[in-house]
Design brief:
Layout (H helix, E strand, L loop, with lengths): L3 H10 L1 H5 L4 H17 L6 H16 L3
């Protein structure tokens, strides 16, 4: 499984392939699924990935589309 930042790079290069449409809510849902998959597979997130999650949802709430 690719790490979070590798997944984000893939999404940046080809958002339609991963999200269907470029929207913050679709990105959030995709990433929530990624986090769930990691949890289900007992894959611990790296410290940088944990930090990303701590900052992403509050950022998203303050920057709605």
């Amino acid at each position: 499984m690719s790490g979070l930042f590798e997944v984000l790079e893939k999404i940046q290069k080809s958002p339609g392939m991963y999200l269907g449409r470029p929207s913050m809510s679709d990105l959030f849902m995709f990433l929530a699924g990624y986090e769930l998959a990691c949890s289900e597979q007992n894959i611990e997130l790296a410290e940088a990935e944990e930090s990303f999650w701590d900052e992403f949802q509050p950022w998203l709430q303050h920057n709605p589309l």
